[in-house]
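Module 6 notes. Inverse folding takes a fixed backbone as the condition and produces residue identities as the prediction. Think of it as a translation problem where the source language is geometry and the target language is the twenty amino acids. Below is one complete input and output pair. Work through it position by position during the lab.
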């Protein structure tokens, strides 16, 4: 967050003379869009945030597809063959 704040201050706020509030909003939105989509970030292994998100989303989707069968496995082991599963109800006293 400190890196973002420093870059925004150095690259936009200290360098731009805003004419009015509407102009400031437009310029800040354009700078933030550029920062969040077009610029490589060192914290993301020098990928743009958009590319990093795309790769991450693809990896998660691929892993979810692979693990589809694990969600359908039984939690408990099935009863071994030959074990009596018929239960006789016990009367409460």
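Target side of the pair, the amino acids:
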């Amino acid at each position: 967050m400190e890196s973002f704040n420093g870059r925004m201050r150095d690259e936009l706020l200290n360098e731009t003379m805003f004419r009015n509030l509407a102009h400031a909003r437009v310029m800040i939105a354009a700078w933030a869009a550029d920062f969040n989509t077009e610029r490589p970030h060192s914290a993301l292994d020098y990928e743009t945030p958009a590319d990093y998100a795309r790769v991450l989303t693809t990896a998660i989707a691929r892993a979810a597809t692979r693990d589809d069968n694990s969600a359908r496995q039984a939690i408990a082991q099935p009863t071994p063959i030959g074990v009596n599963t018929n239960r006789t109800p016990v009367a409460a006293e």
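Reference fact for the lab report: The CA atoms of residues 12 and 31 lie 7 Å apart.
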